[in-house]
Specification:
Strand order of the largest sheet: 3-4-5-6
CATH superfamily: TolB, C-terminal domain
CATH class: Mainly Beta
Number of helices: 0
Oligomer: single chain
Distance between the termini: 38 Å
Order of helices and strands: EEEEEEEEEEEEE
CATH topology: Neuraminidase
Shape: globular
Number of strands: 13
Structural class: mainly beta
Number of domains: 1
Strand content: 35-45%
Helix content: under 10%
Length: 169
């Protein structure tokens, strides 16, 4: 992390444990409520890379938890993006059953502190290429993502509301 001052950005500082470990952590995302999501290859996960979260509770040290199944699988999951309101999670995965390469998946808050079974976003999002890196426009109306075909990367966008069509699948 780094802090911004009047004269510019400060020197980068490594986040302390338990966010950082002796393994690799990347694809950091923080919700408005302070909950941190990231990806790691630390031991104890379900696959090669798993999505983790660290809910922020005032006055308590951070506790990192593997998001677990059904989000994480024996394959790789990464690029977590939680939409405003905390009820929709978009991420990339190499799990079987996709269009090929890596695909974008969406899951919804199950009302019990977990997530519903991920749904492959299919046509309009995924192709035989690698889709990843979901992000939102500042106003939250548009979902941007990257597509890598093995030679070139391109950016695409759709209305974020398009993710609602997968709810209940």
């Amino acid at each position: 992390m780094t802090e911004r001052a009047q004269e510019g950005w400060g020197d980068p500082q490594r986040l302390p444990p338990p966010i950082n470990s002796a393994y690799s952590e990347w694809f950091f995302f923080q919700e408005a409520n302070g909950t941190v999501y990231f990806v790691s290859n630390r031991p104890g996960g379900l696959g090669g890379t798993d999505i983790y979260r660290a809910p922020q509770e005032s006055g308590r040290p951070a506790v990192v938890e593997d998001v677990g199944a059904p989000i994480n699988s024996k394959d790789d999951e990464w690029d977590p993006l939680v939409l405003p309101g905390g009820r929709t999670l978009v991420f990339a995965s190499t799990r079987p059953g996709g269009a090929g390469g890596a695909d974008l998946y969406v899951s919804y808050d199950d009302g019990r502190g977990g997530w519903t079974a991920p749904v492959n976003t299919g046509d309009g999002f995924n192709t035989q290429a690698y889709e990843s890196a979901p992000s939102l426009s500042p106003d939250g109306k548009y979902l941007f993502f990257a597509r890598y075909d093995g030679k070139h990367s391109s950016l695409y966008w759709v209305a974020a509301a398009a993710l609602e069509r997968f709810r209940g699948h």
